[in-house]
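job 3f2a | input accepted
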Amino acid sequence: MGMIGNAVSSVSFTTDIFSGDASTVDFVLSRAPASTASIAVHLSGIYQVPTNYTLSSTTLTFSSAPANGTNNITVLHLGTGSTAAVPSDGSVTTVKLAAKTGSGSVVLATSPTISAPTISAPTISAPVLSGTTTGTYTLAGTPTISAPTLVAPVLGTPASGTLTNATGLPIATGVAGLGSGLATFLATPSSANLITAVTDETGTGALVFATSPTLVTPALGTPASGTLTNATGLPLTTGVTGTLPVANGGTGSTTLTANYVLLGNTTSAVQMIAPGTSANVLTSDGTTWSSSGLSTIPTSNVFTTTSVFTVPSTITKIRVRVYGGGGGGGAKGLDAPGNGQCCGCGWNGSGPGSTGQDGVPGGYSESTLTVTPGALYNVTVGAAGTAGSSSNGGAGGTSSFGVLLSATGGAGGSRGGQGQDDYVSGHNCIAGSVGAFPTGFVRPGIGSGGSINGTGTGSAAGLGGTSGMGTAGGAGRVVVEY
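job 3f2a | predicted structure (482 res):
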């Protein structure tokens, strides 16, 4: 194999010798072996297998410290050591070069002198042609010159050119074909220069951009869209068109018929109900309202005795009112027996009995029910509380409609207290007195099951007797309307 310089001379293998001290395990070699296979390690002349040590660059580490000894550790670097001869400076001539062309000196990059070379289609990057400013530089073939630096050249009229990175072009004199006033605007881009450069403008003033412009009395015509959230001064009679929906506080209608009643319709346009004929009234079916004549007053069935109600074939909704029976009034209390003594007190008489206690009204319950035509409901009518003749008044009976609504009867009133004769107590004469009026609580009737339930608002109660027996309470009743 050919080479430059002197022939290779051989040298001996590199050997590192160390002395053990029974404690040191790390030893630094004179050079870094490629691996443990590149060295042979001997302790006191005995070869050591690579598992007894490790290598890290130039550091040889034994798994256990070698024993004391002088020069008892030998590390032989395997392989052939060689020294390549390096030619001295300036000693390599062109005769030693292969695949050369031409003659003369070797050409280096900086400021070479080349005598009459032949260059075919070269690519020349950033050439600088300096010196004379006249004459012709001729490059053979079709050269490509990349990024040349030209100092104050006169280009004449190039066939083409790209001025992407060009600077310093004077707008006023260096650009042709601009419209009137445009060069002035490009040099000083003000609103006044722009309005001079354009020919189809409208209005006057400063240039307007999209975000937060200030417009002075503009005529907007008919914009394709716009948000007037913060606008003020909008005249409702002339500045608003269309129908304001219910969701925005309107009616959803453009006209409202005179004297019609308006009904809410969620977020849709309001509904209108015509007055109908004279004497009509607004009636509800539980869902909506309608205008109807008085002839459509609901049929009313009043039950004063226990019976059965059959739902008519065309009826699906009824209103039921249940009244519990009223309690009877208590009788007047007994007068004193009349066995008083005359004791010079100026009165020889007996005390009368007190007035009987009134009964209390029965309960009340009311509800609108959805029913099935032909369905049967038991109707129970509570009896009236009996009048107390010489006793307490009787309690009213419970009224009910099926198992849906009920109203208990009111309690009867208590009998009045008995009067007392006059009598002598020691040396004192005690006059006769009126019997004590009953003070106990009397329970009213209670309604249950209805959408409206009343306590003590059912049938009327009887009154307590003032000269004898009390009066009877009012009888219960059940009213069904449809």
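job 3f2a | Residues 11-83 form one domain.
job 3f2a | closed
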